[in-house]
Amino acid sequence: MKQYDAIVIGLGSMGSSTVYHLAKEGMSVLGLEQFDITHDQGSHAGQSRIIRKSYYEHPDYVPILERAYHNWRVLENITGVEVYHRTGLLYFGNPEHQLIKGSKLSASTYNIPFHPMNDEEVSIKYPHFEVPQDHEKWFEPDAGFVTPERAILLYVQLAMRLGADIQAKEKVLHWNRRPDGITVTTDKGVYTARKLIITAGPWAGKLIPTLSGNLSPSRQVVAWVKPKNWKDFEMGNFPCWTLADGMKPGIYYGFPILDVGKFGGPIGLKLAYHYPTGKTDPDAVSRIITEADEAEIRYILDNFFPNSNAELLTLKTCLYTNTPDENFIIDFAPGQDEDVVIAAGFSGHGFKFASAIGEIMADLALKGKTFLPIGFLSAKRFA
Amino acid sequence: MKTIPHICSMIYFLLISMIATAQSDDLLIREARTRSNSAIAARDTTALAAEWTEDFHVISSRNSEVSGKANNRHLFANEFQTKKNLIYIRSTDKVKVNPAWNMASESGQWTGSWQEPDGLVKIGGNYFAKWHKLKGVWKIRAEIFVPLYCTGSVFCDKTPF
Prior knowledge:
The structure holds two protein chains of two kinds. By secondary structure, chain A is an alpha+beta fold. Helices cover 26% and strands 27% of the residues of chain A. Chain A has nine helices and 19 strands. In chain A, the strands form three sheets. In chain A, strands 1, 2, 9, 10, 11, 12, 18 and 19 form an eight-stranded mixed beta sheet that branches. In chain A, a hairpin with a 6-residue loop joins strand 14 (240-244) and strand 15 (251-254). Chain B has a single domain (3-157), classed as Roll (Nuclear Transport Factor 2, Chain: A). Chain B has a six-stranded mixed beta sheet with strand order 2-1-6-5-4-3, with helices on one face. Chain B is 36% helix and 44% strand. In chain B, strand 5 and strand 6 (137-151) form a beta hairpin. The A-B interface holds A 62-63, 66-67, 70, 73-74, 109-113, 363, 366-367, 369-373 and B 23-24, 26-31, 33-34, 37-38, 41-43, 85-87, 89, 91, 93, 109, 113, 120.
């Protein structure tokens, strides 16, 4: 039986980047994915993910984001393929809302370009929006979106070219840590390695029972709609945006319409509501779109784009994996010394970090530490 | 005859320990670079200068050369006062360590931006740094910044000598 230096469970957002960064260091790596590469059962599907630096969630994320921006550029340079697209990001919200307060704090702490806009500027440049008068309007010019499926495929392809073994459609049943290494048992075989990295998204809790109480998968809905004035909402005429109206918890966000010839589908103007629903089982979650799901999307259109006359085109479900404080868990698995490394609980805001998380995971597995400040993401904070 | 396996195992452990030290030094340097970036973002010249040797030497993107920790600290303090919203970020690509001499090279990509009256300058390119481990602590001894692009302001039209 081949003994690997490392096995990575889950080749989605974080796992794909991890297998690449491990293979780049000359390690013998096995990547295991229970579905296809890529797939729509977890958290990474859907064409686009916002990337931004004025991070309202916590300013400590900013150094990791700087690294993520850098690593996305490195991926682009190696492959010659664009994964980061700069559109700018509009922020709308009450000045007391965490979206505005937290973004301003991160921007001022790390000197990130982040500019206020007045009502007139917004109405001239972005007449698409209907936003309450008391909302502040801010613009982050270096924000935009990254393309998740394309990035995952590129990382996995690079890893394979560097000699990584990649197995898709192979589900991990269980793993064991023994004095001589880690054994991973799948529905097709048994593998051994010195290190195990678990980047299994919503399935992480099932693979790390000691953390399952702090990892809550939730069912989310993302929509693509058809506005009447289609061209006004196309990339180049319309930015990424995020909005907190304070009427409901959570925030709303969206993207410009992307050219399907360049980006693939689904077709339309993408938007969604970012607020975790209740805990669900990733193996049993309903993927059927309900009237309540549609109503959630219509709420956004009716309240913030009343003149768009938009029709629903496509609605899809995806999964978040939420932690109690909605911050990630990046650490060694509790009770496993430094042999098992985990990245989990991305709480619906993780993809933009994937290029840096893979590097962090590889460093933790190979060197036992990382140069990036991840102390605030420790699993021990829930102990 | 027992000596040969003994020597082999000694060489093996020596090699393993050298690799482990090099990996650890690599991370220490990257950590120091992250601290340096945070110090620039916070406009903290004390924290920034703490990463430099006393004779720290810089060749800037516009070919100016400044020697000494105090002079470079003064230069940064002046830039923070005169350039609105100034930010520099240095992103490490590669670190190579010479453990015998306690020296290391770091190469990477740098970006800078600040507000000029006519627009936001966006400048960047490649950089190279020489690190020296003094009393067990890695310090930057020299840095050279190569500009590969500059956009956003007439500042960029002024070709350096």
